[in-house]
Amino acid sequence: MKLKKKIAVSETGFIFDPTTGDSFSLNPTAAEILNLLKDGKNEKEIKKEIMAEYDVDESTFERSFLDFMAMLRLYNMIEEHEEN
Amino acid sequence: MKKTKITVAVSGLNNTDNPGPGIPVIRALRESDAFDVRIIGLAYENLEPGIYMHDVVDKVYQVPYPSIGSDKLLQRLAYIHSIEKIDVLIPNFDAELYSFISFEHKLHEMGIGTWLPTMEQFEERHKTKLPEYGKKYGVNVPHSRPINSIAEINSLTPEFSYPLLVKGKFYDAYVAFNPEQVSLYFNKIATKWGVPIIIQQFIRGTEVNVIALGDGKGNTIGAVPMRKQYITDKGKAWGGITLDDQNMLDLCHKILKKTKWKGGMELELIKTFDNKYYLIEINPRIPAWVYLAVGAGQNIPEAMVKLALGKKVKPFTTYESGKMFIRYSWDMIVDLKEFEQLSTNGEL
Question: Quick one: CATH architecture of B4-114+331-345?
Fold first, then answer.
């Protein structure tokens, strides 16, 4: 799962896709996850970091994470060819 | 750098909710590093807002509609030129372009520079000829067919499926979901713009546009893609954002290269959800949102003036993506005297 290279994410959690002109606002947790994705972290690593930082159980994290990823895919922000 | 003093005549001063490109073109020229411009406004109607913007337009002349006769328009331009010594003229209305292109050589003889498409380029990109255009230049276009009478509406299926677009030859487009609506829009558009009416396949997706300037030899001097973010009920962009979309630029370069396009243009495209691009229209002039391109780093009107003056122009290679424009309206207070002066003398 890799974010498209051109996608810009600001510190405030504002995303801009320069190819489509779309922009979105993220809440602080989503922004953190997106920045981890931008740093090249995989789901396992992200889960570890988020669970260490926040009071969240594994299944709640996974449900929210998958939901978020589906949203990113829907808005065409994920590279089609994923890296393993 | 010392700026060259030049006089540029510009039409399209109708900065209304259906805006002409005149005012943004002038703004671009006023920001030029190369030119110190004196602007001569050419107005068709006496309530075009640009007429009364004295810090934008230096002097305004009323000109006759081309529909009255191209010779009348040319005579008026010759008179204006005798007083103002116009170096370059930039016409900005679709409806006047035919006349300007047809007497372009006479303008050049008078010493007025222009940078317009050739008559062949102008004619072949007409909406009614879009299918042939797509085929000739290898560009995706929606299936379309011109119709001349209401009787033809019943034979649209199965060639077309609903919804479909009903378009005027110059302006206006409506989405119709059944033959009754086609008939309604047919009459509405035909009354205003005449026939043929164009029936066009409805392509689902996002409308995106590219402003471009061609050097007439197949090279792109400038090109900036944009997506409308705020669209008025007339379908005009009231806000937009520049895009970093290489596919759009490639398509633009391809069209300019194959057609050897000379002049300003706007490509209207639909980007489908599976990332295909369909060309829906080519406007053979600078669009009203040109100032966004200037703000993003490409002063296309300035480059056009240089070309019209016979100067060499280096193509732009970059622009800033994510630049936005947001249009606004502004009430000017105008003395009746000014309105009177323009209405009676045809000058202000």
Answer: 3-Layer(aba) Sandwich (3.40)
